[in-house]
Amino acid sequence: MAEKQPIVYLTDFPQIERRHLTTVQANLGYACNQTCFHCHVNAGPNRREIMTLETIEELLAFVARASVETLDLTGGAPELNPHFRHLVTRARALGVQVLDRCNLTILAQPGQDDLARFLASHRVGIVASLPCYLETNVDSQRGDGVFEASLAGLRQLNALGYGEPGSGLELDLVYNPLGAQLPPPQVELAAAYHQHLQAQYGIVFNRLFTITNMPINRFAKDLARKGQYHDYLQTLRDAHQHANLDQVMCRSLVSVDWKGYLYDCDFNQMLHLPLAAGNRPRTHLRDLELDRLPGGPIAVADHCYGCTAGQGSSCGGALEPATAVP
């Protein structure tokens, strides 16, 4: 089957350039135990795309060659990749910080009984999806029973020290809006999360990240079905803050797909918009000339307004200091 060709976009989004590479974000595959309506990856239980061991070894070689600070693992549910633990163990041995973008319910899946303990033993930072602190909102976005299963996962992590001050085991939560609107202010929402989760459930965590829903794949189709797609794009454009361009994540990050090809960010990956600073139409991580990155261009399109709208949005939340537990 012929591979999809890169899509070329016309946009008036400002041109931006790369800086020093600090983070590699790797998509280990699209398989997931959940099917979320806002998912820009279209991940789910029936997806079969998975990063092979050969590509994982190439990823590790690239991480070492680039001397990056952070390896950010995503999916789907990255833990469903059969080589996930091998990758984590090897990356930590290189002295690289590892982040696991965990949906929490994966901790209760068959064969994952010791996953939380494995993550703690390797001091993996966890960025956990919890799109609201109210059961009704979470279940409407992620499926019936997901809220209770997420609480169970959080309690399991707390019992290992995650989220506890001074433990060194970072547990950050991620909020996504329920629909076609920007996230509320991160600082105020973080305070509400801390208060509600601790008072009602005895759960602690470090920081809250608010992330804007991107009009890509499943969420884009949902917007189009409701006749809201163009209005949402206009909302993002109208809320653009030029100052946010200085902090967007693509300046210091590259995204790797499950085949090992490089993109400027995870969103561009889903749109087949390849790394602009590469030396060919599609650049594999084994072929990238690292000296081409600093000062190189970043591929942009209209969806990029989602990262600069309002308080800004990145994989680390709003483009302002995230609020941590006191």
Count of alpha/pi helices:
10
Radius of gyration: 19 Å
As for the number of domains, it is: 1
Distance between the termini: 53 Å
The amount of beta strand, in percent, is 5-15%
SSE topology string:
EHEHEHEHHEHEHHEEHH
Helix proportion of residues, in percent? 25-40%
The main pleated sheet reads as:
8 strands, mixed
Record field, number of beta strands: 8
User: Given this structure, which CATH class is correct?
Assistant: Alpha Beta
CATH-derived topology: TIM Barrel
What is the CATH superfamily?
Aldolase class I
Which structural class should the secondary elements be placed in? alpha/beta
* Order of strands in the sheet with most strands: 6-5-4-3-2-1-7-8
Q: Which consecutive residue ranges, at least 5 long each, have pLDDT under 50?
A: 1-8, 322-326
CATH architecture descriptor name: Alpha-Beta Barrel
Rough shape? globular
What is the mean predicted local confidence, pLDDT?
89
Structure, described:
- The chain has 326 residues and is α/β, with parallel strands linked by helices.
- It has one domain: Aldolase class I (TIM Barrel).
- The chain is built from 10 helices and 8 strands.
- An 8-stranded mixed β-sheet has the order 6-5-4-3-2-1-7-8.
- β1, α1 (53-66) and β2 (70-74) form a beta-alpha-beta unit.
- The longest helix has 16 residues, at 186-201.
- It is globular, with a radius of gyration of 19 Å.
Please tag this protein with its features.
alpha/beta, 326 residues, single chain, disordered C terminus, TIM Barrel
